[in-house]
Amino acid sequence: MTTASSGSAAGTGGSTDSTGGAGNTGGSAGGIDGAEPRWLTPAEQDVWQAYVQGSTLLEDHLDRQLQRDAGMPHIYYALMVYLARAPRRRMRMTELAMAAKITRSRLSHAIARLEKYGWVGREECPSDKRGQNAYLTDEGNEVLARSAPEHVTAVRQAIFDRLTPEQVTQLGEIMWVIAKGLQPEGTGADLPWRR
């Protein structure tokens, strides 16, 4: 696998020097405070490309499966799952956006579409008149129950059937480290559900 050069889609690697390492690409672009960016090593670039390709193909695989078998994109299914797991199949919209790691505008658009299908509804939040709850309807719960077997098969075939038990544990640990690092608590970080 080749390393990406500066200005590539990944935008994470420098040009390679004669030894195969990540070299200086020149130009005025620098890192923080004008310091030289810490270009990825060839080994890191391989890991990064593996992640990008694997995650992109996985999302496409799951999206196509759900569109084919359930008539909805992956994000709609995920939102319905969060609602199904919530007490009384209800969540505040802000909490649902946080759980799904999406912007409030994207959530609002998705919920509006799911409302048209009759699978999700909205209501005022009893504890906060300015807030809204989303809830999974009985029809939505039935759609989810019908869709789940094919979806879990797709997930299992794409991920768990390809990994050893040790790799499954490692994957979970690694992804939680990344997820937690990208949503630091108490910092006011620019996170999707705050937009």
Describe this structure in words.
The protein has 195 residues and is mainly alpha-helical. 52% of the residues lie in helices and 9% in strands. It has six helices and three strands, in the order ααβααββαα. The protein has helices at 42-70, 74-85, 93-100, 104-117, 138-158, 165-181, and strands spanning 90-92, 120-125, 128-136. A three-stranded antiparallel beta sheet has the order 1-3-2. β2 (120-125) and β3 form a beta hairpin. It is globular and about 50 Å long. 17% of the residues are buried.
Briefly summarize what is shown.
The protein is mainly α.
List keywords for this structure.
mainly alpha; 6 helices; 195 residues; single chain; globular
Largest beta sheet: strand ordering: 1-3-2
**How many alpha or pi helices?**
6
Q: What's the number of extended β-strand segments?
A: 3
What proportion of the residues form beta strands (DSSP E)?
5-15%
Helix/strand order, N-terminal first: HHEHHEEHH
Regarding quaternary structure, what we see is single chain
- The pLDDT mean sits at 85
Unreliable spans are: 1-10, 15-28
Give the overall shape. globular
Question: What is the gyration radius calculated from CA atoms?
Answer: 21 Å
The CA-CA distance between the termini, in Å, is 37 Å
Helix and strand composition category: mainly alpha
Helix content: 40-55%
Give a topology summary.
Blueprint: H1 42-70, H2 74-85, E1 90-92, H3 93-100, H4 104-117, E2 120-125, E3 128-136, H5 138-158, H6 165-181
Antiparallel strand pairs: 1-3, 2-3
